[in-house]
Amino acid sequence: MREIRLLVATAWRVDRRLTLAMIAEPLGNTLVLMSGLWLAMLTNGVLQGDPRQTAIGIGALVIGAGLGWQLDLSASQWRMVLGEKVAHAFDTEIARMSASLPTLEHFDRAEYHDQLELLRQRQGQLGNSMSALAMTVKALAAGATVLVLLVVAHPAMLALVLLALPALLITKTQQRWRAQGEDSSALPGRTARHLRTVAQDRDAAVEIRLFGLAGDLERRMNDLWREQRVPIEAAERKVAGASLAQQLLYVAGVIAAVGFVLHQAIQGRSAPGDVVLAIYLSQQVQTAVIWPIQAVTGFGRTLHTVRRYRWLVDRARTATPTGSRPAPTEITDGIRLENVSFRYPGSEKWVLRNVDLLIPAGSALAVVGENGAGKTTLVKLLTRMYEPTEGRITVDGVDLAELDLETWRARLAATFQDFARFEFTVQHAVGVGDLPHLDDHEHVEAALTRANAHVLPQEAQLGTSWGGTDLSTGQWQKLALARGLARTPLIRFFDEPTASLDAFTEDALFTGMARATDGAHGMITVLVTHRFSTVRSSDLIVVLADAGVAELGSHQELLARNGRYAELYRSQADAFA
């Protein structure tokens, strides 16, 4: 019922008029099915010489059937329009929820990817969900109408209902078979989708051709496709076999029931019209009795998909952080990590362990270390993409977890190595970094200037797919850097933001950036990099190693200490010598 309420509520939200109009379809179908009763009345009137009964039969047949067909036809067209609107509403909501889950934790869980893959595979069912609901109601109304007509023809014909009961009993089992088949197909289906994406990815194209991987990718995709289809086809074979056995039993029952009514008429125990009604029902009853069962079964599959959608809705709801305090407008003391430990969901390995660190207000902090040292993880914790597994992070003494997430992130700006390539105009590709100034030409121009990112005019369209211009990776990265510089935040993160630029260009950019704010509102700059030459102008340098803080100090202090930082710095300096 939760799934049905969700469907109806969604349809009601997108178009109330069309939702109400869905009532016309089962009503129209019921009027059409009543034609058998009017035919029986007409037959009795003609054979018994009763003009009144004949006239009523003719009038009811013409008006009822005509109106029924018209309602049925019109409502089916309205249902298609409503289905498109509901499909769009579900597609939009799935995209919104996927993009707005507050943290990144779900990306590390296989369960989320499997559920999302099954949602993608069955997303068409969500679009047809209202049609499935309307057809189910229509089928149930038709079944009820036929049951009444069976009683009118002869109560003995109700025996057909008993022959339909096995279908009811196997419906739940059939749904379970299909659900098990879908669950088993999720992983190979998701893997095949990933390979298709890789095969079409421009960045992977060079390596695919260089290493001759096209044939291997095709083989893998074919194997995965077959692996995906095996459990689904096995489930469908079992479903088809059970349905065939039930159908054969039902057909035998129809023959026996119609023959019985005919015998009753020959013996003079029923009216001639009852024979006509029985013959009419013999053409309708199989559909009208079995159809509701099949409709309910099909609707059950739709509800199973809606249940997966609801799983995403519930996850989005429960994933909402609890913090409600407004984020500060300035930092007066600093940000402190108190005994912070973190490990990714499903992993037993500590990425950070018992980290204590103070980032003073108005400072520029550089975070260095080897690959896997936890540099990017530190940034994700400060941006609350993840919550600490143990310990806490405070801002001027207030627990970061207590701050409202939306207002906190409104105080942040960032540029990442794995940046997004927004194929908008240059104006909007940079302007999305500060949405209130999305169309502010001068504001975006200032950001482009700070990042030295004047690669194209601001009105230029990006992306060859839209008839625009493609950029080199370095040019895309410059636009991402400008996007990160568009907003004036409390904390600005640079996480390997210039990996595609040469070391000298990077050094020139960050020599100025580290001091660009002059401590305004206590603004903090956090720079994560592998290049030690770019961190010299930072106020504080933290070296991460072995899941903790290995060294902490200024550039000169760390060089004088002649420890891990000095060793790594000199090794890179020698490489450029």
Q: What are the defining features of this structure?
A:
577 residues, alpha/beta, ABC transporter transmembrane region fold, Rossmann fold, 3 domains, six-stranded mixed beta sheet, four-stranded antiparallel beta sheet
Topology:
Layout: H1 2-14, H2 16-21, H3 24-33, H4 35-48, H5 51-100, H6 110-121, H7 123-127, H8 129-153, H9 159-200, H10 202-210, H11 214-266, H12 272-318, E1 334-342, E2 352-360, E3 364-369, H13 375-382, E4 390-395, E5 398-399, H14 405-409, E6 412-416, H15 426-431, H16 441-450, H17 473-484, E7 491-495, H18 503-513, E8 524-528, E9 540-545, E10 548-553, H19 555-561, H20 564-576
Parallel strand pairs: 3-8, 3-9, 6-7, 7-8
Antiparallel strand pairs: 1-2, 1-4, 4-5, 9-10
CATH level 3 topology of the largest domain: ABC transporter transmembrane region fold
Give the CATH level 1 class of the largest domain. Answer: Mainly Alpha
Biggest sheet, spatial arrangement of strands: 6-7-8-3-9-10
**Could you state the CATH homologous superfamily of the largest domain?**
ABC transporter type 1, transmembrane domain
What characterizes the major β-sheet?
A: 6 strands, mixed
Mean model confidence by pLDDT: 82
How would you sum up the global shape? elongated
Q: What ranges have pLDDT less than 50 throughout 5 or more consecutive residues?
A: none
Number of helices: 20
